[in-house]
Sequence to fold (551 residues):
Amino acid sequence: MRCPSLRLSTTVIGLVGSTTLLLAAGPEPIDHAVNARIRAEARERSQIMQTLHVLTDVYGPRLTGSPNHHAAAEWAVARMKEWGFDTGTLEPWDFGHPGWLNERMTAHVVAPVKDALVGEVLAWTNGTDGPVRAAAVHLVLPDRPTAAELTTYLEGKASAVAGRIVLVGAAASVPVTFTKPAMRRDYDDLAAMFDPVTPRAPQFGPGGPAGRPGATPDPARLTPRQISEQVDAFLIASKARVRVNDAGREHGQIRAFNNPSFDGSKTLPTLILRNEDFGRIARLLAGGRAVELDIDIVNRWYAEGRTSFNAVAELRGTDKAGEVVMLGGHLDSWHAATGATDNAIGVAVMMEAARIIKALGLTPRRTIRLALWSGEEQGLLGSKAYVAKHFGTAEAPTAEFATFGGYLNVDSGTGRVRGATVFGPSEAARILREIVAPFEDLGIIGATATKSRRPGGTDSTSFNAAGLPGIGLLQDPIEYQSHTWHTNLDTYERIVEEDVKKSAAMIASAVYHLAMRDELLPRFARADMPEPAGAPAVAPTTTAPATPARQ
Fold:
């Protein structure tokens, strides 16, 4: 990878609205001596891998509402108190669903051959109440059906599925990949992405900084969720025993998400088989051979999981202690693996960044607050609840809204941080660009600004949606989108230690410098604040500039 020095301008000219020209302030003051100490602490005394070990090997997986997640949150708070953080607590929020945990699953084909099967259980489904040994049957559903077409297909299948283990859907054809995805991001591409004058919008994680809109659905056709719900209702009414889905991914990868109703009575015990096993069984059945399976699933429900928790800890500031700079990531994970790259490593990096500041005896002027969210995987629920409680929105702010200095977020795997996007005016990006410039040699390129208040993708957008400066951090992909994101391969072994140490150093410096500034990170003025996502467009008038276009 090419790594030439990036030339950063110390002054930036930005347009605000359509008529006003502002000159940016002078160069951002950088404490290079502190940066040198941060580098040494991050390199020589890192706690990241030990933190990761506990979060994954001891407490993983950490599904929202589960005992594992609660224990991991309690441990994180206790650990930060051991490091000398001034406060640490679990802040409750209403998840509204019981907790759930898969304790055990075994699956075998017992006829016409004998072999073990590899699968994961769909979350928030019931167990089998003992081993189920039954004949397999395959329902190959019509493609993108209407409700009537699906009903017609299912009619007459009731006797075929009664008492059976039912494979649902055609086996996916997963082609061999001849062109492997890049492990590192290209320098020239990043330089264009973070160009100070004409930046190209960066993407954060698989869905980008605010998710990625899909194609407009045909209202006459059922969505995948509607199809699954109708099939579930049919299988229950027909007294099938177990549902089996195809993971549909290469090399044994499995993504197991959740029963969207969170109600075990609305779906059968459900297993997601790796594509290789699902395809084998489907081919045996298609060839006219009788297939018998043996499946045993033990799941537990936890009523207390209806209340979930964000783990929050602070390093108190000095003369500006009433203002706060935040950093964090989501602690919850899916249950197919131990949630290392998504997102125990983000948590470990952020804990380490704050630990470095404390260990060096630095005295930031603003309070530094670390938040480890739950409910991210179910829709950013924990961070949304926190932002609503503490800050409100630009349209309905709380008292804390005015004293907020930015939130930095990590949630894209093990790759080192390469750049940042902040919700705010171009001046906010200029400040971040200059703060991170001393870490150019570690791979970070720069920063850019966004006007989008559309939530989605990761927790920094919960702040953006409220009109606050959320800062999403772009990382090298490594194996994240291709192998580990939400899969059964997301384990401790997939972490690149040198990358995460570099990320912690860069983030510790950024947080420290934001906490030391004379002024808060610039925000949109009230007149320039973009409309919330989904708000109706307002026609421009002759007396005020139009709302800036969203990026």
About this structure: Confidence is low (pLDDT under 50) at residues 1-24, 204-212, 538-551. The first strand starts at residue 13 and ends at 16.
